[in-house]
Amino acid sequence: MPANRFVPRRPVLLGRRHESDVLDQFLHRTQAGRGGALVIRGEAGIGKTALLEYMRTAPGVRTLRVSGAEFESELAFAALHQLCGSMLSVLQRLPGPQRGALEAAFGLSSGTPDRFHLGLAVLNLLSEAADEQPLLCLVDDAQWLDRASAQALSFVARRLHDEPVALVFAVRAPLGGAELTDLPELRLEGLADADARGLLASQFRAPMDRQVRERIIAEARGNPLALLELPRTAELAGGFAVPEAAPAPGSVEASFRSRLEGLPADTRLLLLTAAAEPIGEPSLLRRAAELLGVDPAAVTPAEDAGLLTVSAWVRFRHPLVRSAVYRAASPEDRRAAHRALAEVTDADAQPDRRAWHRSMAAAGPDEGVAAALEHSAGRARARGGIAAAAAFLERAATLTPDPGRRAVRALVAARAKRDTGAAEAALTLVAMAETNLGPDDEPRRAEAAALRARVSFDRKRDDEAVLRLLRAAKLTTRCDAAGARELLLDAFAAAVFVGRFAKGPRLLEVADAAHAMPPVEDPPRLLDILLGGLATQVREGYTAAVPQLRRAVDLHRRADDGSEYGLGEVWMACNAAMDLWDDAAWRVLADRQISLCRQHGALASLPVLLSFRALAHIHAGEFGDAAALVDETHSIAVDAGAPPVVYVDVSLAAWRGDEATTAALADVAMRAAHERGEGRLANVTEYARAVLYNGLGRYEEALQAARPACDLDEPGFYSWIPVEFVEAAARAGRRDLALPVMKRLSERARASRTPWAAGVELRSRALLTDGPAADELYQEAIVQLGRSEGTVHLARARLLHGEWLRREGRLSEARTRLRAAYEQLSSIGAEAFAARAARELAAAGEQVRKPKAEAQHRLTPQEFQIARLVATGATSKEVATQLFLSPRTVDTHLRNIFKKLDITSRRQLRGLPLVVTRTA
Start and end of every HTH luxR-type domain (predicted)? Predict the structure, then answer.
């Protein structure tokens, strides 16, 4: 596509020269095929809509416009339908899963739309639409987007870099827009005083008292809409009157209300009906007006007053007009408007919107309306609209006359609200349920307690949340033993997460509670076996727990039935696999659940699972793959609204020997650990520092770094921390510190009986052994680690053996071993350990020159992933589906990859050495 220079031919908005230049540059990049996303953020009336209108008139682009509506924010995919409705003719060009997701979202077929496939479908739909002409998508009032649409558009917005497609969102500050976090922003401030005076003078040409004018300027604070509306609020006869003091935009809304008061009653009722009807369909408004006995001609005074326009669509001048109209109406008039709208809304085509209007028309509890809302919630959930389902369920609970049924619906609504992240709303609904529950309804009271506990841990992962989960589990035991065990596993995971910041022996308390549970059903669930093993591990020690943990891990590994497990269960199963030194099970468990999450679009679980898989890549010496997953983890965490996952970043930097990056990341991570009470993050940070300092040969510092986590000896770190501690203590001459930890390590490794366990135990024991026995231990360690997936540990065993051989004066053998260690450590990117091997080689009489990786072989994390997949024979479409990109973006990356690698075909990628840039 030719990249013609964009030359603005439009008048620049008053006082917005800088903003206009930014938008022109953004449009020019889009025309050149390098689209992207931009968020225009500012308070109501600041000029966001005017800037969107400025962009809409740009030549050489096709423009689509969407407006969020407050009353439609609970209807899943409403905004997405506005945007994509005109492009459905190209639906058949999309891959089957993407087409199916879009059809399900728009109600064209049954089923639940996969979130990732839906995001890809929208991305590819926009890409197809931009084939002939760059596409500009303008989204006004994005704070009112329904959550399902906002998530999909946010997904797309982060993947437009190589598409001639631009997404521009206008968001009212400080409302909403959470899904758009981290996108480029253009923040609008108030106009400068000179521009404000110019705008005011252009609207009010009569003489005006200087003090009146200056007060208007001061109150408006540069807000353009306020400058236009505030003069109308005062009776400016001759321009000599003082408007009421009220800050914008409150005064702006007051201005609209005062203008409503002068309109005929029928006009106000018609405006109210339009405000309650978010679609803006004139025929629907006309039919509702007829039911209300209002002549459609009553709209004329409102149009004359500049409050709204009626043409192809009904549009208010500003969202504040809609708000002012709705809020100014009496409850009776609001119910009448919604009742009329419910009557004229097609029950077959739009049952959910009709149910919502009926609920807003209800003057009190109404079981028929509540039941209809409940059915709508089911349809919304099936289409992926959890936020819509939660809103319907919340309203259904409010309108339910029977207390018992109201309590049940409130609990269902609370669970849905929790799923959407609306913690306060969830707790309010739990309180409603508890108020309406009968005194003997133990199961429901236990369910309410469980919800409170889980919301508590969602909001703040502290010791109190662990106690709440534990208490909820004990309460649930009396009526639902299976549910109680699920809560105990959550409590176990929470206690591991809190770790050192717990205010008591929480792990032991959870383990005791699990041990005291009634016998499990026969056959037991995988969850029950895992919980039993974890409880035994805490109560009786690692060796006693190995048989149960081994069984739980093996069963989870073999359960290839497509089942998805709760995140807590997968997390604890992976932790158990690591504590058992079972690297194959750890990798398989993570891979399978990642595959299922990708297939079903479970974004919330992916960041944690990808982090586990990235750690497995580090263990296997696959730093490039780990870096690529770290990059993807952060991207998906933003898409999913999940907290940032920083565990792998600091570990990867340490293994790479990057002291500056490790130090910076470790400082941030440790501060976050203390602020949030995340003991697990503190353990990871200490482990990373120990790895770094062992690599650098600064053993005293490594010993100090590893000691706190080693003393705590918490689950999930049995296979990591002791190994680093023993090496640091042995090399620092602190045999007294190393021996007790070595004893613990030996007992556990021998109970585990895996090659990884045997290898690191032998390697660690060799560090504390003299003479020929040490030689034998090192050699056997290398054999055992060669049977595992732990490439980094194998390379370090070779390094330690070579160092020992050199000190023993066996220089020829030392050079052979050190050379192998150096080559392996260099190839995987463990630069500090490689440098340590190079120093030892030099001391043994052999100088080495570190091979410099060819610059053209250094790929970004995303390029690395694409190259690896294409090298296996995957097509661009297949790669795009796997990595949640568009085929066009994949092809653009491939061109960059070919240039960097100096190749011309996909086939040439096979067998090439690929390196990920450190900036990953």
Answer: 852-917
Phi-psi region of 191 (alpha: psi -120 to 50; beta: other; left: phi over 0): beta
Cα–Cα distance measured from residue 565 to residue 877, given in angstroms and rounded to the nearest whole number: 29
Is the distance from CB of 279 to CB of 264 less than 8 angstroms?
A: no
Q: What is the 3-state secondary structure (H, E, C) of 847-893?
A: CCCCCCCCHHHEECHHHHHHHHHHHCCCCHHHHHHHHCCCHHHHHHH
- Is cis: bond before 8, omega within 30 of 0? no
Dist. CA 55–CA 100, nearest whole Å: 33
For the question of whether the overall pTM of this predicted structure is more than 0.85, the answer is no
**Quick one: tokens of 171?**
């968001």
What number of CA atoms fall less than 13 Å from residue 733's CA on the CB side? 0
Residue 487 DSSP SS3? helix
The two tokens of residue 155 are 């997904």
For 621, what's the count of Cα atoms within 13 Å in the CB-facing half-sphere? 23
Cβ–Cβ under 8 Å, residues 590 and 609: yes
What the block records as the tokens of 605 is: 């679980």
Cis ω for the linkage preceding 523 (within 30 of 0): yes
pLDDT one-digit tens code per residue, 893-909: 788 888 788 777 777 77
Mean pLDDT (whole number) for 105-126: 80
Phi, psi for 11 (deg, rounded to 5): -65, 135
Query: What is the CA angle 290-293-298, rounded to 5?
Result: 80
- Of 130, 67, 142, which is closest to residue 313 (Cα–Cα)? 67
Give CA–CA dist 761/780, Å, rounded.
10
Query: Which pLDDT band, with edges at 50, 70 and 90, does 720 fall under?
Result: very high
Coil/strand/helix, residue 174: coil
Contact 453, 469 (CB under 8 A): yes
Asked if residues 586 and 616 have their Cβ atoms less than 8 Å apart, the reply is: yes
Q: pLDDT by residue (tens digit) across 804-813?
A: 999 999 999 9
Q: Are the CB atoms for 46 and 188 separated by under 8 Å?
A: yes
Say if residues 38 and 153 touch (Cβ distance below 8 Å): no
Cα 901 from Cα 909, distance rounded (Å): 8
Cα distances from 469 to residues 394, 485, 492, in angstroms, run 24, 11, 9
Task: State the DSSP H helix or E strand holding residue 915, giving kind and residue range, or none if neither.
Answer: strand 915-916
Cα angle 866, 867, 873 (rounded to 5 degrees) comes to 95
**Distance separating the N- and C-terminal Cα atoms of the chain:** 30
Give Cβ neighbours of residue 377 (< 8 Å, ≥ 6 apart): 388, 389, 390, 392, 393, 396, 416
Q: 850 near 82, Cβ under 8 Å?
A: no
